[in-house]
Predict the 3D structure of the following.
Amino acid sequence: MESYPSKKNSKSEFSSPIALGLLEATPFAKNPIEAVIFHSEMLLMESGMTEPPFSPTIYAPLRSVKEVLYKDLKIDGRLIPYEDGFIIELRKDRPIERINFTFAHELAHTFFHEAMPSIKYRSNTANHPQHDEDEERLCNVAASELLMPTQIFSKIVKDFSPSPQSLQKISQTFETSLTATLVKLLSLKLWNASFILWKAKGNNFKPEWIARPNFSLYYDPNLELVNLSSTSVYHTFFTGEPTSSSEWFSLNGGYKMSHFQSMRLNSKTVLSCLTNSSGNQFNTSKNGETTLRSLKSNYICKCDGTGWFSIRQNGMRYAVRCLASEHKKPF
């Protein structure tokens, strides 16, 4: 998964000789994360790239990569030391966004070869080359920085408000996956919003992951919508119309109302953006009882009897559920 730890107490989170060796070899770095970001920033400066997309193919020759091969692999990619440089092999049947992240990840391994060649040499020539978890995590940090440099990424994101369409547009701009882009957004605390990816499961659909500020991505969450078939998410899933509506949902046993913006990505997935709703919310109390405050009931019908009406917001047209208790008769 494309994620990485926070800088807080990050030195104590890394204990392998490889991670600590990179730290010792990097002047002014206070922890391994700062060290690997420093190397990423230096590579960005050397590349001369100043705007997205930040192509790994531009970085590659600067890290002595002699050849990049796209092959049938069981793994996403690997870095192979070769004479006075490296060969990178990438799994060719992955989406381009995932290939880009893997490519950048493998490039980041060259930082460790440069900083501590003796340790990497022993690892590569051993009968069973060691898989260092600390190094893998730090290479994810570097890959994120190489593809989405923090300063440039933050400046571009400020031009967008949180929504599924915005997330998709940003990921397309940087040629990164939705999850990698979202992890970057959350780590930098650029949006105060949560995202849910819904995926078809037989005749139904369920959340595949949820991403929240301060929590990052969490797969298979204990989450469900109240009255699923009447929700805007359900409407988006089966009609393809983007929707904007307030919905009740349950997460880990507690209940809340949030504003949902949803769009269908393909026939099997819907992406929702959640922001705080002005509506009331209810929670499960200590004794298990549920307290619910009354909601506004005097909504005026805007749907002409269809149950939905259309609005234009942030340059997009949404289907919005009509909340009136009684609807006008259709013409």
